[in-house]
Amino acid sequence: MQMKDSKALWLSCLKYIRENVPAEDYDSLFAHVSFEKYIVAERRLILQSPSDYICDQIEKNFLDVFRTAIYNTFGKINLGWDIVVVEPQEGKKGTSVLVESPDSSTPYDIKQPALQPKAAKLPPIDSQLNTSQTFRTFIEGDSNKLSRSIGLSVAEHPNTSQFNPMFIFGPSGCGKTHLVNAIGNRCKELYPDKRVLYVSARTFTTQYSQSTLKGKVNDFIAFYQTIDMLIVDDVQEWVKATGTQDTFFHIFNHLHRNGRRIILVSDRALSEMEGISKRLITRFGCGMTAEMDKPNYQLCVDILKKKAVRDGISIPDDVVDFIASTANGSVRYLEGILNSLMAYSIVYHSNLNMSLVERVVKRAVKVDNSPLTVDDIMDKVCNEYEVTYNLVKGRSRKKEVVVPRQIVMYLAEKYTKIPVSRIGSMIGSRDHSTVLHSIAKVKEQIQTDGLFRQRVERIEKQLQVKDKKS
Hints:
Mean pLDDT: 79
Largest sheet: 5 strands, mixed
Oligomer: single chain
């Protein structure tokens, strides 16, 4: 059989496939597969694909149509792929991979990863890391000691397979983002040629959506397959985003198979990530899972003192004590109050004293001297209803979780100056309409259910605040 005849047969295959699969699937998958060669002596057809993703999608969703098209034109032959991963300004080509054999007892052999030749050096990328968040500025305490130790090991030994992937979870404000940026920065410091990328889950989803609209999903995947250390923050935001999850699944497999580092960050445990596919959950948990907790009082004090030294300011001990005792384990709260203090001190030419700190804290809440935060409210509600912090922030629709979640939103709107849209984002990335609905439901139940009203009042008493309407 001549090469020309083989190409003609391949065109016949494509014609059959085009007539038997949806047009959008043909355009996004089969249109990118090209004829490489046909080895007559081995009855072996070799095709080219621009990425593993296309191969996986064809094999997962259209194997029967694909096999029928090949057998109807070439006969029952050996079929293989050449994986050609197109990278920015460079490229690399894999070896043939057997995916189907006529002599096999099963119609479909599992495709094994291709051996890739050493790729040419790729151009540098912007890592998107916060260069101020390093291990030198990350204060160690009981709540983060294990995560910090493992993170430092990962940063200094990125080429080992240990702790890969690393899944870090914990409540908002405990320092997760600082830690993963510190890992990335340390890795870049020791290995300048490593392609390290920090990206939020939301940014990743936006990039994926834009690439889909432009018909450039393969380019999007190919770029991420070149990363040596991929850090994805807030992966809980991929809940129910099936397209994003499916695409990341293939990127994850490629990176993990090739020994690249993957670090994932979430505000909830893997067991509480409802809406994330089981196959992703399995992969997220196949390495090292590290939990971070809120910093305790002493760690808050240490963080404040360290930041004060860094910024060259002097803070009296009573001010440090007051801020640390009201922070409720939120590093972001500490940073926010400290930044506000510095701004007020400069604008009003005031010293950093208790009078100033009380003034600053008052502006963050609606009631007298109660420096409440959403985390304060969350803690008291969780204790009252005996549910976990992560469950309330999760996606569970069970009544025993929904009710305390609604109470948190109600009290947050009532006693803090935080906009409802922000409250929603702090409690599981919910929109403002959900918060408004929850507030209305709690107000209604307070009027009609005496026992419910007593529970809410008991929480308010624990928070040591007074109803602004009383």
